[in-house]
Design brief:
Layout (H helix, E strand, L loop, with lengths): L1 H19 L9 E7 L8 E6 L3 E6 L2 E6 L5 E7 L8 E6 L2 E6 L4 E6 L5 E7 L8 E6 L2 E6 L4 E6 L5 E7 L8 E6 L2 E6 L4 E6 L7 E7 L8 E6 L2 E6 L4 E6 L7 E6 L8 E5 L6 E4 L4 E4 L3
Antiparallel strand pairs: 1-2, 2-3, 3-4, 5-6, 6-7, 7-8, 9-10, 10-11, 11-12, 13-14, 14-15, 15-16, 17-18, 18-19, 19-20, 21-22, 22-23, 23-24
The structure holds calcium ion (4 copies).
């Protein structure tokens, strides 16, 4: 009995799909990816992975498909990458990035890298047009500028590196890309195509970027790092490094960087195991103990 029910429902399904897709003769697999305003009219378009081979955009009942030229792909992010209204769909497709412009119904492709690479984020790094797409590709950081239809590559290091934040650090137009590269902090000013290197540690001293946020209450984000026993804050606008000694040979960590006192500039809250925590008030360049 059960078998019969299953069989007849299969027939019903087949019939249903043949009606939906009379020309193709098989059921397309559509996976919903999300909804965004892709043409700037204030209404959301629906975006689907269509059979693993295309992105389908459905807008008020109208379907448009954009073929993806590589079989291994995913929708990395969605952002406005040019001067036109509405967001673009940013697809990582094999060794290239494909940006789908739904509003004007075209794709642009950018060759990126023939190895492991990732889309980190999007941000307006040159302060013109839309957002740039920031990509890590082997030893290089790439900034893909879809407004200008070009790619700029910055060599970082053959060693271990990562992007710690993307913020305006120098109060010049455009956001900066903040990178930890071995012993160095590198700040990429994509607006002027330059890199500034700050030497942070020597030897194999452990350090990391805890945040990129305004801590001194003056315009421009600071780079906050834990470096051995010290909290180090780089004020990129002036190029000054400020250090706060947290412990002597002890273990500690940045719990949070947040505005505690309601005055411009975030405070840095620090955890120290088996001890009072500390709060660094960079605006006044002071440090206090936190009650347990
Ligand atoms: Ca756009
Ligand atoms: Ca831009
Ligand atoms: Ca800037
Ligand atoms: Ca600041």
């Amino acid at each position: 009995m059960k078998k019969t029910v299953f069989f007849s429902s299969m027939l019903a399904c087949t019939f249903f799909f043949f009606n939906l897709f009379p020309s193709s003769g098989y059921a397309a697999v559509r996976n919903y990816l999300g909804s965004w305003d892709l043409n700037g009219n204030g209404k959301l378009e629906q975006v689907f992975n269509y059979n693993g081979t295309a992105i389908e955009v459905v807008s008020q009942g109208q379907s448009t498909k954009f073929p993806i030229s590589n079989p291994v792909w995913h929708l990395a992010t969605v952002a406005n990458t040019n001067d036109t209204q509405g967001a673009e769909l940013i697809v990582k497709a094999g060794d290239h990035l494909q940006i789908i412009h739904y509003k004007d119904r075209y794709s642009t492709e950018y060759q990126v890298f023939n190895g492991m690479w990732e889309v980190v984020s999007t941000s307006n790094t040159d302060h013109r047009g839309g957002d740039e797409v920031i990509v890590t590709a082997g030893a290089n950081l790439k900034v893909i500028n879809d407004s200008l239809r070009n790619t700029h590559e910055y060599y970082i290091t053959n060693g271990v590196w990562y992007v710690g934040g993307i913020e305006d650090t120098n109060q010049q137009p455009g956001s900066e890309i903040v990178v930890k590269a071995g012993n160095d902090l590198k700040i990429i000013y994509d607006g002027i195509k330059r890199i500034k290197t700050y030497s942070i540690s020597t030897s194999a001293q452990y350090w990391k970027i805890a945040g990129v946020v305004d801590t001194d209450g003056k315009p421009g984000a600071e780079v906050i790092m834990s470096v051995g026993d010290h909290l180090m804050i780089v004020r990129d606008k002036s190029g000054v490094k400020k250090t706060y000694q947290i412990t002597k040979n002890g273990v500690w960590s940045v719990r949070q960087i947040t505005d505690v006192d309601g005055i411009t500039g975030a405070e840095v809250l620090i955890d120290i195991p088996n001890s009072n925590g500390k709060i660094v008030i960079d605006r006044t360049e002071t440090m206090k103990n936190l009650k347990k």
